[in-house]
Amino acid sequence: MMKNLCILAFTDKGRETAEKVRAGLPDMNIEMYDRSSGTAGRFVESRFTISDAIIFVGAVGIAVRMIAPYVKSKGTDPAVVVLGEDGAYVISVLSGHIGGGNRLTERIAGIIGGQAVITTATDINGAFAADVWASDNGCVIPELSMIKIVSGAVLRGEAVGFDAGGFPVEGQLPQELTSEEAEAGISVSLSGNSNKYENTLNVVPKIVTLGVGCHKNGDSENFEKAVLKALADNEISLTAVERVASVYLKKDEKCIADFCGKYRLPFVTFSPDELMATSGDFAHSDFVEKITGADNVCERSCVLASGGRLIMKKTPSEGVTVAAAVRPWKCRF
């Protein structure tokens, strides 16, 4: 979900346009470039990896030169949108689909009364775009190179398969998709390793919460290995994980903090009373209850944090326990 934006403008007229854009996006956290704090190049360098979108009010050439050293992948790059200082044209430059750049471009054009300029082929042809669908549904695409193959099939008028992987489907499949056999297709799963089609675009919904427990002052490397092994053994991709949960006692545990920091996952904790009030069929441990106040930390915490159901029961490994829960989710069209 797009939330953190920054805007750069270089003239008085450009700054007036930038302020109109900011006023029209009240739901976003927006940082405005101030030249008194340093050069625009340094500003872009420091914000590129932490922003959801960067908006330039000025020439496209200026924007391209500033972002060029930092562009890496459509899966990680922020959306980049450029508009002239008069606001006549709003151009989607980078991460139009997965990054949400095209949607942001259209929204900004609506705010300032400009013309949205979008050049991605599926948008021009009014065709289904798998990466847009994945982004809109809160999913991750592990193998980005497959997007081109599926989009190419769509643009050639070939039927593209769709496998919901057991998840419920809401709405009608677009005309470009079929539930029948196809050479290229989209497969939804938590594992992200389906070979349903000859050319499979795997789509992983980011809907899993990990519940964890560990010994005090546990080793960070050991903790990471235990978590990754538990996920692999249960065919859950790390890209499906949206948060980590535990008991409040573990809020400052370094090994958990290191893991969450490395994989950019939020970490939430709960009191023993909150965990014990969580309904479900959980394993019981007198020892864990004596230490933490809750008879099961990992299972209870992931169910409570996700608001869903347990899909991986308590899995112990060398002083680390891991469980996983999944929140309710549908393939929406």
Automatic annotation (TrEMBL):
This is Cobalt-precorrin 5A acetaldehyde-lyase. Keywords: Lyase. Coiled coil: none annotated. Residues 44-123 form the Cobalamin synthesis G N-terminal domain. It comes from the Bacteria. One of its GO terms (biological process) is cobalamin biosynthetic process. One of its GO terms (molecular function) is lyase activity. Residues 209-325 form the CobE/GbiG C-terminal domain. InterPro entries: CbiG_hydrolase, CbiG_N, CobE/GbiG_C, CobE/GbiG_C_sf, GbiG_N_sf. It comes from Aminicella lysinilytica.
